[in-house]
Amino acid sequence: MPLAERKSMSDIRHSLLRRDPLSAAKEALYHLDISLGSALQTTGGSGGGSPPMEKSSVDLVEEFIFHVPKDRNAQPKRLSCLQELQLLEIMCSYFQDQSRDSVRHLIFSALFGLQGNQVDDSRMAMLSKLVSMAIAVGRVPILECAATWLQRSHAVCCVRVARVLVDDYCKVVPGSAHTLKQVFNTSPAFCCQFITAVTALYDLSSEDLTPPPALLEMVVDWITEDPRLLLLTFLNTPVPAASQSRGCLELTPLLGLLRWSVKAPLANQRNRKQALANGHAELEKGAGQGVDYDELYSKLHLSVLQVFLMLQVHLTEKNLIGQLSVLQWEQVVGLVDEVGRLGEELNPLHAAGHVQLALDRLAQAMQVAMATGALLCARDELRPLCSRLPHNNLMQLVMSGPFQPPLYPHIHAPRPTGLPPHPHPSPLSPHIHSHTHTHAALSPHNAHTHTVISPHAFHPAMGFPYRPIR
């Protein structure tokens, strides 16, 4: 940086030191906008990507927005609760008023991106509060920036933000989930990433890590209204970038939601057992909140299978059948191990029905995932893996089918033509241009208790004879 510019930044800092904290923060944000906006104009047409932030700009952000003292040995300044709220309002107004998407996303990344692979607690706390406020007051530009941030940041950071949002809207204030639920109509991209983050957070490994009733009901409502929501990030990600950076969230929440629906019968039974052991009354309906867990997880399972069928159409359109595995083999191995361990925790005599329901859903999901190209493996690979699990008739039927190699690029199954658009208007329509199709055979009205799925691969243009297990 030239000497004159260094002097200018030094003058700016001395000027900001004479201001009150909120005025200084607003001015620092203004200078960051000028600096990065100009750099973006310079590099925008050269294909060089986002310009790096100068160290002097980093120092201004740290000192006057996040109040990190220049002298690292000094105590950091703390804003009062009112000042913090006013700072969040300043940020909200800036992102709302900034008309250039590229600059808005760049500033958001500059403020809340990882600094040298270090997680800054104060930044994460500020980010969580900013996104929570954006949900409350309907600031869509911030939610769109947050969606991109959730896609590109480390999963540990994404889970921290998701935990705050769940606390704010699904736990602390009864009925506030309605506010978060409305985001589906304004920022589907954020909803997709939020679902991916909460499925990474809540893995049903304990009662504390079981999704709260309000969260579960909201996610199922979103997906039931339009299952294409789960594919939004995947369909808008370039093919070369389809394999996410190590440590980031998955491209789709399919694995996490599949974990929810498969493990739910066992996890809920475990939670009830522990509640009884601790002297609490058994709760059948979502802690008295009128939530029917069994019904919600059944609807969730049906939607996940529907999305696998939709995914096959998109993979075929993009000529990715046999080339891109949406469910990784290692993930399936992990899920099978989790189901096995959870089943062993329960008394088989008292939980046989719950174990069988979990295994039925797992068998269904593996069959559909293999047949649609979402899981690239053969039955011969799955047989020794699933032999660790308790006996299940449907699993035996799926595993005893004929040898079925993975779908390879040179094997192109005919794709359905002339598929109708989604039957209901959806805010996702501008985001997803490809036609998708909901099979009539997947209607929840066809639900029966005992279902048998043909172990043979099915023609993608034919309806899939599935009825959800209740």
Summarize the structure.
The protein has helices spanning 3-17, 21-44, 55-64, 81-97, 101-112, 121-137, 140-152, 155-172, 177-181, 188-201, 213-225, 232-235, 254-277, 293-317, 329-345, 348-371, 379-386, 393-399.
Overall description:
The protein has 470 residues and is mainly α. Helix content is 57%, strand content 0%. The protein is built from 18 helices and no strands. Helix 6 crosses helix 7. The radius of gyration is 25 Å and the shape is elongated. The N terminus and C terminus are likely disordered.
Number of strands: 0
- The helicity comes to 55-70%
Derived from helix and strand composition plus strand pairing, the structural class reads mainly alpha
Q: Which blocks of ≥5 consecutive residues have pLDDT under 50?
A: 1-7, 283-288, 405-424, 433-470
Chain-wise SSE layout:
Elements: H1 3-17, H2 21-44, H3 55-64, H4 81-97, H5 101-112, H6 121-137, H7 140-152, H8 155-172, H9 177-181, H10 188-201, H11 213-225, H12 232-235, H13 254-277, H14 293-317, H15 329-345, H16 348-371, H17 379-386, H18 393-399
Helix pairs in contact: 1-3, 2-3, 2-4, 2-5, 4-6, 5-7, 6-7, 6-8, 7-10, 8-10, 10-13, 11-14, 13-14, 13-15, 13-16, 14-16, 15-16, 16-18
Quickly list its features.
mainly alpha, 0% strand, disordered C terminus, elongated, 470 residues
